Recover the amino acids of this structure.
């Protein structure tokens, strides 16, 4: 699966900050290319991709030092995952 997520994220102002954490919200379209076949042995074919579209919605919190947690869901997307819980670091 290859997914291009074209999301826009809104970070709330520092006045709405709770301690060291700042909330954010986001949404945007997802372009998803999926290949769902498998051949036995070591030969894997990537010649036939299926195309799906979706719409992602997300919410999360980011720490001043760059750590963040995000909950994302994908709406209207066929075989793609529906819910993600993401932890990461922005530098």
């Amino acid at each position: 699966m290859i997914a291009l997520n074209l999301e826009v994220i809104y970070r709330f102002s520092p006045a709405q900050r709770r301690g060291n954490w700042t909330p954010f919200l986001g949404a945007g379209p997802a372009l998803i290319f999926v290949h769902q076949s498998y051949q036995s042995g070591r030969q894997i074919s990537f010649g036939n991709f299926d195309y799906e579209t979706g719409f992602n919605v997300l919410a999360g919190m980011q720490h001043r030092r760059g750590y963040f947690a995000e909950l994302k869901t994908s709406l209207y997307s066929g075989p793609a995952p529906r819910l993600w819980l993401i932890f990461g670091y922005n530098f």
